[in-house]
Write a structure and sequence with these properties.
Elements (H helix, E strand, L loop, with lengths): L3 H4 L13 H17 L1 E4 L5 H18 L1 E7 L20 E9 L7 H6 L2 H10 L6 E2 L7 E6 L5 E4 L6 E7 L3 E2 L2 E4 L10 H8 L7 E3 L6 E4 L5 E4 L2 E2 L4 E6 L1 E2 L8 H8 L4
Antiparallel strand pairs: 1-11, 2-3, 3-5, 4-15, 5-14, 6-12, 7-11, 7-14, 8-13, 9-10, 9-12
Amino acid sequence: MLDIEQILDLESYPLNDLKSDAGKALVERCRADVEATGLFNLDGLVRLDALERCVTEVKAALDREAYTHQQWHNIYFKTKIDGLEDDHPALKQALTSNRKVCADQVPDSILMQIYEWPPLADFLAAVMAKPQLHTMDDHLASVNVMQYGDGEALNWHFDRSEFTTTLLLQAPEKGGEFEYRLGLRTDDDPNYDGIAKFLSGEDGAFERVALSPGTLNVFKGTNTAHRVSPVVGNRERIIAVLCYYENPGVRFSDEDRIRFYGRAA
């Protein structure tokens, strides 16, 4: 197993030394980015050699036992929204399609070593102003690796968790860009008509980010619509989602596990 210093560029990103001047500056920079744009990136956090090994590990799992997830859904990933008729344009359906593996399918991997390294959770807690963050107590949902082939996409949606942490492992030839629309709704204003306008294409005021492999991206997606645009070409987009929560012991329900992973255990 590699040492964490061989995996992560801790000279550029001193995640393990947040009390140092460089560590404090990193936290403040990331906080400012979140405040201004709703996200922050640590470009090239994973070193190239470690990234190549990580991709080899997850590709083996994907080739061996990936679950193909295809789902028509609305932007809320819910069948019903209180106060909306079923035919309201804010409930427009779109297709998400990918192949995925879960944490229990990549044990003892570089990816799991990164996820379970305590200073990463401490760093995220510092940036997001949380007392503490914990890894999930869920062998399916804690870490997911998703692969998008030609024509596949993650369509417009809102996240259930306050923020989402992703690590891009492999970029496609074209497409597969992260797109998001800030200010589309708030905790106090669901803005259904504005969401309908956005989904119809009348509101094109969204941002687009092309991430590079090895980049950690943290995004506040509860009230910000976002998607991954369709991949183009023969090289797949491969991305890992790392889940942390303020409370320990968080698990998905069996219903959610079956919905997203095709199995409950």
